[in-house]
Amino acid sequence: MPPTLPLQTCLRASRPAATLPNIMSRRALSTTAPAMYKQPRVPDSSIPIPSATGPCPEIPAYPYGPRPFYHQSNTGLYGAARIRFGNNVSERNEIKTRRKWRPNVQHKRVWSASLGVFVRTRLTTRVLRTIDKAGGLDEYLLGHKPQRVKDLGPWGWRLRWRIMQTPALRERFAREREALGLPPKVDEVEVLEAAALLPGGSVAGDALMAETDRMLQDDMVFELHNEETGPTQEGEKSRT
Questions:
Q1: Across the chain, where does the E strand assignment appear?
Q2: Distance CA 240, CA 230 (A)
Q3: Can you give the pLDDT at residue 225?
Q4: Coil, strand, or helix at residue 97?
Q5: 3-state DSSP call for residue 72?
Q6: Residue 50: what pLDDT?
Q7: Cβ partners under 8 Å of residue 205, min gap 6
Q8: What is the DSSP-derived secondary structure letter of residue 77?
Q9: Other Cβ atoms closer than 10 A to 3
Q10: Could you give the C-alpha distances from 96 to 23, 70, 90, 100, in angstroms and in order?
Q11: What is the spatial distance between Cα 121 and Cα 214, in angstroms, rounded to a whole number?
Q12: Which of 71, 66, 40, 73 is nearest to 162 (CA)?
């Protein structure tokens, strides 16, 4: 019969419950955003640089939608880069081993002339070379060709919207419209403010609504017509 070994008591079990370390307190979850998305403040502007992942209801939706493959490219300037798959083939026995090629993604601060600050973003080296050829980040984002808009992705689309709100680019677009012989673009906010100053009420449609209610109470006949053709056939029949 083999000799029995002395039993060793578990040190952790022998400790009182009050002295056990609180493991959950050491692994507290953090809710702060990644450091790369802590964008600098734009001087002399109250509009911040939009987040790459947060909701931005004021920005129009990206026409091509989020990318279904390689979701990481939705939060950076990746162009058309994706993860490629292939095989490693040995020279001796021609044994194939599956492998993947990831794009060369870097964390960079790219200068924006219209914003006057460095924009933090992820981007591939191919996109960085394209930015240098285009003449800067602003010129790259303002590319009007369909392929360029596809290469921007959701994050590039948000940056494009942000730089278009700067006074420098607004003046540039106004000069381009004037050179093409187009009338100046009227802001929707200015139209609403002008409509509020019309006589007859704070809203331009108050007088029309009041006239419509009066005609409904008097059981009057509405005549449907337009400026070019005059009264319609239905309006003529109603008068007869």
A1: 84-89, 96-101, 105-112, 117-124, 225-226, 230-231
A2: 16
A3: 53
A4: strand
A5: helix
A6: 92
A7: none
A8: B
A9: 4
A10: 46, 25, 7, 13
A11: 60
A12: 40
Distance (Å, rounded) from C-alpha 36 to C-alpha 226?
57
The residue behind tokens 């050829």 is: 133
- CA 203 distance to own-chain centroid: 33
- pTM for this structure? 0.63
112 forms beta bridges with: 117
Residue type, 172: R
Residues constituting the chain:
240
In the chain the first and final C-alpha atoms are separated, in Å, by 123
CA distances from 98 to 25, 32, 71, 234 (A): 42, 37, 22, 74
Tokens of 108: 């960079």
Whole-angstrom distance, CA of residue 20 vs CA of residue 52: 42
Q: Which of 39, 45, 35 is nearest to 110 (CA)?
A: 39
Q: What are phi and psi of 23, to 5 degrees?
A: -70, -35
Q: In this predicted structure, what is the pLDDT of residue 161?
A: 95
Beta bridge partners of 230: 226
Beta bridge partners of 98: 87
Q: How does pLDDT run along the chain (240 residues), one tens digit per residue?
A: 556 655 555 555 555 555 544 544 455 555 554 554 589 999 988 899 999 888 999 999 999 999 998 999 999 999 999 999 999 999 988 999 999 999 999 999 999 999 999 999 999 999 999 999 999 999 999 998 999 999 999 999 999 999 999 999 999 999 998 898 888 876 644 544 454 444 444 444 566 667 777 777 777 665 655 545 555 454 444 444
217-to-209, 221, 225 alpha-carbon distances in Å: 12, 11, 22
